[in-house]
């Protein structure tokens, strides 16, 4: 194993910066490393293939079978539907299933997606080594309803995708799906109390088909990890070898398949993988086994803890996990309760390295956090005191596993746990002990350029035949739901959602209803809540949206109607979000990542701080957020909801 040092201009840290040093010195080191990653262009440093004709090939669908995709006219024979769901991932499925729970029928629903099948991010991502980092008994939804027993403690991507297809079949939603289809524009018709939706369907070998349909209700559930991004490295277009994004893996180039990680076609190839985040941590060991040479191009090292994967013992699962009605909800609640600066529950049902990462409450919300910004400095001290032993152990593990001290040093993560999504793997670090693997550490700067046959970093050219970009997706916390879908949404009086949210920020009640866009159900994360287990958040909003629509339909007595929040309710909700915002300020000052929009949150002028606080996440955490929604439902009056017949 070798490391290419492109840090010659950086000062070497003395012994006080090694693991075990006091918190003050560690914090200084955090700030030093963060400074390396700060850029003036922030989130604009990335290229978006979905918005560029030159890079469209990066988002081509390698999995779709056009012969199995029904055309728009077949799926919309009368050019209408009662409920249109944008997104066929797990979020879209959950919204559809919860709507079935309150009286909709499968034939009332159409679910559209640019993909060729169900699964969302699990449809697109099929790279070798793919698994979910959240325990499958929590992550996979509807386990009680389906009776399904996950095969492993952490489900593979293939299993999650197959389970999504299983759920679609069980709830009769297979015939509701309209694949390889995108909504280009939604326009509200106040008189008819419905949406006009311009659809375009693009299938290989078939001319694009367009159709305008009417939908009484629309749900935007188009995902958090749906549009791949590329680093804005000069020269990408000049490269003459093979290259692809990790979310569009080309097994025709590498060999193998989604169920076979034998990448036999790499044995004579020099491969570079750009990125060292959660995706790359899973891919790197597989590339290393098969490639002639592997260059791992790193800006910021991942914080890699133990995974401890294992097969599910069915007898154990039935006797220790699925032991009573409501077991999965109880398990997820217990999981969420681990993330706090105060005393954790006496029991830890999950008992993995996630539940040791208590300080992730800094981004998921903390009911025990500060109530005002005056309390914030003391809160930050508490966070760091809780976090330092964990991060020290993660950094120490690198030194214990990686044989070359120089390489180990470059693989140590110098930032708090909450600044990036932690990763978990039992083989990633060991990979750097292989002779065919080279760490190209760019000291936070990234590569300088790409040529026809190489990646250049630190002035050194690294000849490669294949480049894999494991560089993530468009930041999930930027733009409106319309922007997330690369579409236009025009509400009351022709108001553009993109323009209005850019001007004033999110304006919702409970994160699901906007007064300017009736009969449109949102799915967060704006003005809602998150946890490390994203599907739980989405399901909570799906249940809430279904409740609102059920009650509104009951009050409308069969007549066409519109349902939205009142402006007063949306304003009040923004105030409620702002009042709980103090715990979320911990992300300020973090190493740039999608969590803080590549450091752009730090640059917000004082006059924008209040708007950001009103627009953000529920600072008291997901369980408190759910309690608020359930209490509102129990009260029963639909307070703040306007129904117009």
Structure keywords:
21 helices, FAD/NAD(P)-binding domain-containing protein, FAD/NAD(P)-binding domain, oxidoreductase, FAD, alpha/beta, 645 residues, 23 strands
Short summary of the structure?
This protein is an alpha/beta fold and 645 residues long. 32% of the residues lie in helices and 16% in strands. Helix 18 (534-556) runs parallel beside helix 21 (622-635) and helix 19 crosses helix 20 (606-615).
Query: What count of helical segments does DSSP give?
Result: 21
Rg estimate, integer Å: 24 Å
Top CATH class of one domain: Alpha Beta
Report the CATH superfamily of one domain.
FAD/NAD(P)-binding domain
Structural class: alpha/beta
In the CATH hierarchy, the third-tier topology of one domain is known as: FAD/NAD(P)-binding domain
What share of the residues lie within helices? 25-40%
Shape designation: globular
Q: Provide the β-strand percentage band.
A: 15-25%
What is the mean pLDDT?
94
Main β sheet profile: 8 strands, mixed
How many strands in all? 23
Distance separating the two termini: 70 Å
Unreliable stretches (pLDDT < 50, length at least 5) are: 4-21
Task: Report the CATH architecture of one domain.
Answer: 3-Layer(bba) Sandwich
Keywords: FAD, Flavoprotein, NADP, Oxidoreductase
InterPro entries: FAD-binding_Monooxygenases (IPR050775), FAD/NAD-bd_sf (IPR036188)
GO molecular function: oxidoreductase activity
Family: Belongs to the FAD-binding monooxygenase family.
């Amino acid at each position: 194993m070798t490391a290419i040092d492109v840090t010659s201009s950086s000062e070497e840290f003395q012994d006080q910066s090694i693991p075990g040093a006091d918190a003050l010195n560690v914090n200084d080191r955090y700030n030093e490393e963060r400074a390396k990653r700060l850029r003036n262009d922030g989130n604009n440093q990335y290229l978006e293939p979905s918005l560029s004709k030159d890079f469209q090939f990066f988002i081509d669908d390698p999995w779709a079978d056009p012969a199995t995709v029904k055309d728009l006219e077949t799926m919309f024979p009368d050019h209408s539907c009662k409920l249109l769901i944008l997104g066929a991932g797990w979020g879209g499925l959950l919204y559809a299933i919860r709507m079935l729970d309150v009286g909709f029928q499968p034939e009332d629903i159409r679910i559209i997606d640019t993909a060729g099948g169900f699964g969302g991010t699990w449809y697109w991502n099929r790279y070798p080594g793919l698994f979910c980092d959240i325990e499958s008994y929590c992550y996979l939804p509807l386990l009680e309803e389906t009776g399904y027993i996950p095969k492993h403690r952490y489900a593979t991507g293939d299993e999650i995708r197959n389970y999504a297809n299983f759920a679609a079949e069980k709830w009769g939603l297979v015939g509701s799906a309209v694949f390889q289809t995108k909504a280009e524009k939604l326009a509200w018709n106040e008189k008819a109390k419905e949406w006009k939706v311009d659809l375009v369907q693009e299938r290989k070998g078939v001319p694009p088909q367009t159709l305008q349909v009417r939908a009484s209700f629309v749900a935007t559930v188009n995902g958090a990890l749906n549009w791949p991004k590329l680093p804005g490295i000069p020269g990408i277009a000049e490269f003459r070898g093979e290259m692809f994004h990790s979310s569009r893996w080309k097994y025709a180039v590498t060999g193998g398949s989604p169920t076979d990680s034998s990448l036999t076609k790499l044995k004579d190839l020099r491969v570079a993988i750009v990125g060292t985040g959660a995706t790359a941590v899973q891919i790197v060991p597989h590339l290393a086994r098969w490639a002639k040479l592997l260059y791992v191009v790193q800006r910021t090292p991942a914080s890699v803890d133990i995974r401890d994967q294992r097969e599910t013992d069915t007898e154990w699962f039935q006797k220790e996990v699925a032991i009573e009605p409501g077991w999965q909800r109880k398990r997820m609640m217990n999981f969420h309760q681990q993330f706090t600066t105060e005393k954790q529950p006496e029991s830890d049902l999950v008992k993995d390295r996630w539940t040791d990462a208590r300080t992730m409450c800094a981004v998921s919300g903390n009911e025990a956090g500060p109530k005002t910004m005056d309390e914030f400095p003391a809160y930050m001290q508490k966070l760091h005191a809780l976090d330092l032993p964990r991060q020290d152990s993660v950094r120490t593990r690198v030194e214990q596993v990686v044989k070359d001290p120089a390489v180990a040093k470059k693989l140590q993560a110098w930032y708090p746990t909450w600044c990036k999504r932690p990763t978990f793997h039992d083989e990633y670090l060991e990979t750097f002990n292989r002779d065919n693997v080279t760490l190209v550490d760019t000291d936070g700067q990234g590569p300088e350029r790409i040529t026809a046959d190489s990646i250049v970093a630190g002035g050194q050219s690294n000849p490669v035949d294949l480049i894999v970009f494991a560089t993530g997706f468009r930041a999930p916390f930027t733009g409106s739901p319309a922007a997330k879908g690369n579409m236009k949404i025009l509400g009351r009086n022709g108001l553009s959602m993109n323009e209005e949210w850019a001007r004033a920020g999110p304006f919702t009640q409970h994160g699901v209803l906007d007064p300017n866009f009736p009969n449109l159900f949102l799915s967060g994360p704006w003005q809602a809540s998150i946890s490390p287990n994203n599907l739980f958040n989405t399901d909570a909003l799906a249940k809430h949206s279904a409740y609102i629509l059920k009650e509104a339909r009951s009050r409308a007595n069969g007549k066409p109607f519109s349902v939205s929040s009142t402006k007063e309710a949306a304003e009040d909700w923004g105030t409620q979000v702002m009042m709980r915002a103090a715990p979320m300020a911990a992300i300020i000052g973090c190493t740039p990542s999608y969590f803080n929009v590549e450091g752009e949150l730090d640059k917000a002028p004082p006059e924008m701080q209040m708007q950001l606080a009103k627009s953000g996440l529920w600072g008291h955490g997901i369980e408190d957020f759910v309690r608020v929604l359930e209490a509102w439902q129990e009260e029963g009056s639909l307070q703040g909801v306007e129904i117009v017949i």
